[in-house]
């Protein structure tokens, strides 16, 4: 990547905490950015439209005012916010609007990206609990997942996702960044800023590792455990037809879990072991991590969940006529 003298000056090593950082697009392919902007703009439009439609259908259809769909609306809202938190920098680079981001803006963006990632993991865990209660304890489903309890679960998810991440994010403001201010992605991540710091980053590193273990890893283990219990309960059902019907209610959630965890594991592996990979690979994996779950979740639930599928078709037919 060839940088102008002004840009080299702005991203060169310094100990200032107020300098700018250079966002990384597809290095060496700057001439193709106008073409790249077409699919990326389309993906963002689909993310915003798809999740807004899921929220609209659940909000306007009284028959969908059930715990399962309340949790689905939380997932759609999380995906919508994830798209909105990155659209400016990702498309800004491709459209030639921006190349740099201030430290304060970078910290704010990283706060929302990581907070929303933890929130999505927490919502997926809540949805796994919903499926567990619905299949393993159906007679008590409505008494366990009451509206007041769902509100409490939602508030707990928000607090869990954004409260515990605050200390390491705030501390980013007080670190000295003496390496070249060039980020690995077209958006800001906590680990990317740590890589550029020359201050003592042990607190941030250990705290971030603890959060990953206590939130992402723990959620994944609990989701797996819930499905072991669900599988045990389903296999106890005598009828093959009923087994198939019960499994079908979990397909959408299993797909959403895979769509979330596979990109996040891939990004972690690339950051940890992919130092030899080209910058383009880092940018591509980063964009998949940011865009794949918000893009796929509305598609998965619109296709695999009969109630959402039916309402979506009805919505399109009303718009058509």
Automatic annotation (TrEMBL):
Record-linked Gene3D superfamilies: Rhodopsin 7-helix transmembrane proteins
GO molecular function: G protein-coupled receptor activity; olfactory receptor activity
Keyword Transmembrane helix in annotation: yes
Pfam families assigned: 7tm_4
Membrane topology listed for this record: Multi-pass membrane protein
Any one of the GO CC terms: plasma membrane
InterPro entries: GPCR_Rhodpsn, GPCR_Rhodpsn_7TM, Olfact_rcpt, OR51/52/56-like
Compartments where located: Cell membrane; Membrane
Entry annotated with the keyword Transmembrane helix: yes
GO process terms (BP): cellular response to lipid
Residues passing through the membrane, by range: 36-59, 71-98, 150-170, 206-230, 251-274, 280-303
Keywords from the named record: Cell membrane, G-protein coupled receptor, Membrane, Olfaction, Receptor, Sensory transduction, Transducer, Transmembrane, Transmembrane helix
PANTHER family linked to this entry: OLFACTORY RECEPTOR 51V1 (PTHR26450:SF67), OLFACTORY RECEPTOR 56B1-RELATED (PTHR26450)
Its biological purpose: Odorant receptor.
Assigned protein family: Belongs to the G-protein coupled receptor 1 family.
Protein's UniProt name: Olfactory receptor
Species annotation: Pan troglodytes
Gene (UniProt): OR51V1
């Amino acid at each position: 990547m060839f940088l102008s003298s002004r840009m080299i000056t702005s991203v060169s090593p310094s100990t200032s905490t107020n300098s700018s950082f250079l966002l990384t697009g597809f290095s060496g392919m700057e001439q193709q950015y106008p073409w790249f902007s077409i699919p990326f703009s389309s993906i963002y439009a689909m993310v915003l439209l798809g999740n807004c439609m899921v929220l609209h259908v659940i909000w306007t259809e009284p028959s969908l005012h059930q715990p399962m769909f309340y949790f689905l609306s939380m997932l759609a809202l999380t995906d919508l916010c994830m798209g909105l938190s990155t659209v400016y920098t990702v498309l800004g680079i491709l459209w030639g609007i921006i190349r740099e981001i201030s430290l304060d803006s970078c910290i704010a963006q990283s706060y929302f990206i990581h907070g929303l990632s933890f929130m999505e993991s927490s919502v997926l865990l809540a949805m796994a609990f919903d499926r567990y209660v619905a299949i393993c304890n159906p007679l008590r489903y409505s008494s366990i997942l009451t509206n007041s309890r769902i509100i409490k679960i939602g508030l707990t998810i928000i607090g869990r996702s954004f409260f515990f991440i605050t200390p390491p994010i705030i501390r980013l403001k007080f670190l000295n960044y003496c390496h070249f201010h060039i980020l690995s992605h077209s958006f800001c991540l906590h680990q990317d800023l740590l890589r550029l710091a020359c201050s003592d980053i042990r607190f941030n590193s250990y705290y971030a590792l603890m959060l990953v273990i206590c939130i992402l890893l723990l959620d994944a283990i609990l989701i797996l455990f819930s499905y072991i219990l669900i599988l045990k309960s389903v296999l106890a059902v005598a009828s093959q037809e009923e087994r198939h019907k019960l499994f079908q209610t979990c397909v959408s959630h299993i797909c959403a879990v895979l769509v979330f965890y596979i990109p996040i594991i891939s990004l972690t592996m690339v950051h940890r072991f992919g130092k030899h990979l080209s910058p383009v690979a880092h940018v591509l994996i980063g964009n998949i991590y940011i865009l794949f779950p918000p893009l796929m979740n509305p598609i998965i639930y619109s296709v695999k969940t009969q109630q959402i599928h039916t309402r979506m078709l009805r919505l399109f037919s009303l718009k058509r006529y």
